[in-house]
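note to self: dont lose this again. the chain is below, predicted strucutre after it. 550 aa total, dont forget to put it in the shared folder this time
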Amino acid sequence: MSDLGLASISWLQDNIFLFAACFSIAIAGAAAVVAKATAMFELSPSGYGLAGDDAAPTSLRAIPHWHKLLLAILAGAAIVGWLVLSVSWEAFTYWDNHIFFRPLRGEPQFTPPPIFPESGRFYPLGHQEFEWLALVDGSGVFYRVFFCFQLVTVCICSVLLVRTKLYLSLLMMVAIVLTPGIVTTFIQLIYPERNIIFLLALYFLFLKRFLDSGGAVSVFVSTAALSLTIFYKETVFVVMVSMGVFLLSPLVFSKKHPHGNRFIIAAVPPFLVSIIFLSYYYGVVAPLVESAYGDQRVRPLTQVIERTIGKPWIWVLGVSLGLRVWQLIRTGGRIDPFWDGVAAASCALIAAYFALGYDAPHFYVPAAYAAWLFAFHMTQTLRPRKVGTLVHGVFVAFIAVSVIAQLNATWNGLRGRKEFVHSRASAARFVADYAAIKGLGTAERPLYVHPLPSVVFGGGLFGGFIEAKYGLNVVVAISDETTVDGGPCIEGAPVRCVFRPAPQPGELVVALIPRFARDLQGRDGLRLLFVTEDIGFWRNRHHASVFAAE
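---
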């Protein structure tokens, strides 16, 4: 069984595009056929009466022409601004990851599917889009243009899905775009969560359209998008289970329902995909696990909750859920199989990452996206004529304040990344110029670089970037890791790591963090050669310094 599992994993690594496409098309096609075949049994073309469906949706025809012009100008300016900001002060691909060193060396982009059975990781479509994007253009600028297209699509799908007033639609787009984790995933290259919310946006929109009006096309697109999400992150199955459970709720709480077929058709794909994925994962991947991915990275539950619970989008989700419960109690309403499922999916993802002990913002991106959708949907259901102007106004104001509360974290994260990348790339460029002057970096005279902090992965990224971008023979010297043996620092990056406690004359010491530079100032045998400059618009907190050993 172990040999068969390894063989299947090997096949997937070589044919992941083919398998993912066939898998999603097969399930989506089957769902579409069933939807078409059972359409004749629908008793009424009207919707289920989901919460908020009686609200007048915002229509482009109802918007004055000057509003449309203003909206188009604002949207265009926002898109251009996002692109300019995302590519400014960036050196492709310094801090994105070593998986992009190949195009720096003039080679085709290729990244093996991230299937690591020994550590339990299985998200085979992660980073795979870059290979076919590189067929058009393998530059960092083009990659970010594509990400901008994804983000615009997410915003459009969200507006069409929530169908609220124009000013609330604009506020919702701002809330999504400025969420710190979402900014991280769309600015950096290595986080697949941006693909997850892109697919979830399509899934939610077309699923809602199917529940409202039926149609084989809607169920096909929604099911295909959902099926692909599982290939980008293992934990997405909790979203599927949550949606499946709530989609079946009308049949549980209502014996006769005019659209029971739609809910069954919509609920089957999430359960089916989850069952197939979990069966394969626990039948093939789990037995091969040697050391679980979270063993060395898991944080205490209290620490994860403390670092995550303060996020504004979680405040908004909590208040929205409280209002939803109050709404159900006050009006005696029934469960909304779609929107309550979206809220449950957000909560399930939060619980999953709490249990795993992960606190990095990018992990929570799908949960944050679902939370914003649910919150702005609640602004539509809690209309003034139903709950009073004060309640509605306070809730909208609370959401607006929460959106504003994100700005500091978003700016600090974006600013920190820009300074981080700019300083390291500038230091790498100086090192390359220094090596050219001194005749170092050749096969006969390799360039020895001592990065501080002296860690294998960070040092490998720095040395690998110099090797890939400038074609130098670089050796990364590690002073506090005796396990290095002269082999590659990072798998897939040819730069070597060796153990060398102290720099020798002619070798370079690069302080990648300012506090290390302060410790080295004035030390005997080290001469300061270079300190990176500020980006220019603000005083930088991150600088890199280069010292020469004498």
